[in-house]
Amino acid sequence: MTLRQKISDIPLYLQILIGMITGIIIGLIALQVDGGDTFIRHWIQPWGQIFIRLLQLIAIPLVFISLIKGMTGLKDISKFSRIGGKTIGTYICTTVVAILIGLAMGLLVQPGKLVNHEQVAHLQEQFIRAMYPVQLFAFTTSSSAATLPVTLKTVEQKLGISEEVSSFVLPVGVTINMDGTSCYQTIAILFIAQVLGIDLSFSQLCIIVAMTVLSSIGTPGIPGGSYVILAMVLTSVGIPVEGLALILGVDRPLDMLRTAVNVTGDAAVCSIIDR
């Protein structure tokens, strides 16, 4: 077996994770060497920028083509309105729920105490076990759009969801369903407001919920796609946009985590629609 074949046998998300860890190690070593930061800036950083640009380049065509494939793959065209309406309605509901959870956490409320976890434990375990490769891939790429092919393959092969449903529901979810991003934005807004000493009224909290729901539909599924949307929501409730500086320094790992939540939400809705 050649080296190339051995590498190809390693799951793609694991290859990316190894590359990320290797990059961190090389970066730490370079910081200890004279001229290392210059080497990274001029010889390493451009390749990372090229990777991000390629993700941005492929995001829209990938989602568009997948959506068209899903629509044309419907055996009964009369199902289009039913599945489409149910899909969009469920995605909006999950987004609102994510926002409310974010507000509750930001206001130091502990939700979910009344949930009977024993009844759904086996379902959760089965779902998470099947979804962990997708979550890791989303974590390492920070792109819901780039993760779409992996998500499609996983829900069809491991969760038993029909291709007719998954090929339509998941591309729509990449576009309009951003549960992790919505939850993050509400917590980030509350954090910035608290640091700046700004008290938010109930009406402002309602505006945050409404604006986050609407803005999550337009958040691009690419790394760092939520910055502009978050700035818009901050402005709508009278919080200085300069407050973004408080979180931008640590946003990269948070972006990776919320992308994993985004794709998990897409798969959860897909499972609901298929039932």
TrEMBL record:
Q: Tell whether Nuclease is among the UniProt keywords.
A: no
For this protein, the parts annotated as crossing the membrane are 12-30, 50-68, 88-110, 130-152, 187-214, 226-248
Source superkingdom? Bacteria
| Keywords noted in UniProt | Cell membrane, Membrane, Transmembrane, Transmembrane helix, Transport
Among Gene3D superfamilies, the record links this protein to:
Sodium:dicarboxylate symporter
Q: Which InterPro entries match?
A: Na-dicarboxylate_symporter, Na:dicarbo_symporter_sf
Tell me how this protein sits in the membrane: Multi-pass membrane protein
Where it mainly occurs, coarsely classed, is membrane
Q: Where in the cell is it found?
A: Cell membrane
What GO terms are given for molecular function? symporter activity
Question: Which terms in the GO cellular component ontology are assigned?
Answer: plasma membrane
Please give the PANTHER family that the UniProt record associates with this protein.
PROTON/GLUTAMATE-ASPARTATE SYMPORTER, PROTON_GLUTAMATE-ASPARTATE SYMPORTER
Q: What is this protein called?
A: Dicarboxylate/amino acid:cation symporter
Q: Which organism is it from?
A: Bacteroides cellulosilyticus
